[in-house]
Amino acid sequence: MKTAAFISQFAIPAFILFAVLYGAIKKVRVYDSFVAGAGEGIEVIAKIFPYVLAIFVAVKAFQASGAFDLLKLALSGSFTALEIPSEVLSVAFIKPLSGSASTAVFTDIVRTTGPDSLASRISAVIIGSAETTFFVLAVYLGAVNIRRTKYLVPVCLIADGVGIILAIAIVKLMF
Amino acid sequence: MNIIWVALIAVSILAAFWTGGLEAVTKAMFDGAKTAVEISLFLLGIVSLWLGITRIIEDSGLIYRISHAFRPMIIRLFKTIPPDHPAITSITLNMLANLFGLGNAATPLGIKAMQDLQTLNEDKGSLTFEMMLFIVLNTASIQLIPFTVVGILTDFGSANPSAVVFPTICSTVISAFIAIALLFLFRRLMK
């Protein structure tokens, strides 16, 4: 845990230092290279922007629409039957859509149910092990401007679903 | 993506009709547009920064050395990438950044990796298997320590905040394997 924290603190500055010094030793005009590379950033973001826009508009609308609450209402019965805290549902549905929103929901669960409750632990594992799938898809597909995605999206969504069930099962087994 | 986008928009607006939250949904859509601009501006900064750094390691030849060193590991999954190709380095760096929870490096390097993989793509309009594999590995989010989560649990006085670390690693590793297996399964089914 300490080592990992240490590495994640020092990895980036160490890598940048090494890249710059190595370049200088190899007699590369490091500053010129950096500026030339960084100049491509705008072009890349211009390509990604419409994809990110489309996903954020849809996700925000979905969050505000109350569709979540209808879904939760429909599913909370089976969750109670399986002895899974119903708070987990919110995290499970928000995590693939939005990183900041899922952190907010998680913080709220920790505040209301306590940091060592089953709900907090399951939510923690879901947040730690799942990714904001829609955002990743938008950014990475936008970067290469590809709209024909073959079977990628179903694979990601099924994997997300399996991951959430797995997270719940593992926490229930371990605690 | 098309179906999902239509579904999200349609369900949201219909649900809003049902619950009477139309005004909130309209506002949320414009909020979403604003968030997209903010996120893109943020990305513009970090992506440009990393493109600058990766250009330095390209010009100094370091990128080919890193590719060479990590080729044996990456090639097990990404079979069609030629030796010493820059994509090997950007994939490796993206994976390492993910592992250590360095989001600010992982996304820009992932974008770079997608572009490097695109140079190997013969049909520029559709994804290669390697690209799909790369995206799936990213959405599986393989991370050693979930720092944000542990931090929040600590803030609220958890007796043992790192108790969630082991289950998180188990869950993330198993689900990554399942995701990769699914991808290979779909490839076989779609042929």
Poorly predicted runs of chain A are none
Helix content of chain A: over 70%
Domain count of chain A: the total is: 2
Radius of gyration of chain B: 20 Å
Q: How many runs of DSSP E, i.e. beta strands of chain B?
A: 0
Q: What is the mean pLDDT of chain B?
A: 91
Quaternary state of the chains: heterodimer
Question: Which two chains have the most extensive interface, and how many residues on each?
Answer: A-B, 97 and 107 residues
Specify the biggest β-sheet of chain A.
none
Outline of this structure?
The complex is a heterodimer of chains A (175) and B (191). Chain A has 175 residues and is mainly alpha-helical.
Explain the overall architecture.
Chain A has 9 helices and no strands. By secondary structure, chain A is an all-alpha fold. Chain A has 2 domains: 1-39; 42-174, no CATH class. In chain A, helix 3 (41-64) packs antiparallel against helix 8 (133-143), helix 6 runs antiparallel to helix 7 (118-129) and helix 7 runs antiparallel to helix 9. The longest helix of chain A has 24 residues, at 2-25. In chain A, 47% of the residues are buried. Chain B has one domain (2-139). Helix content of chain B is 77%, strand content 0%. Chain B contains 8 helices and no strands. Chain B has helices spanning 2-19, 22-59, 62-77, 86-99, 103-118, 129-139, 147-155, 165-190. In chain B, helix 3 packs across helix 4 (86-99), helix 4 runs antiparallel to helix 5 and helix 6 (129-139) runs antiparallel to helix 8 (165-190). The mean pLDDT of chain B is 91. At the A-B interface, helix 1, helix 2, helix 3, helix 4 and helix 6 of A face helix 1, helix 2, helix 5, helix 6 and helix 7 of B.
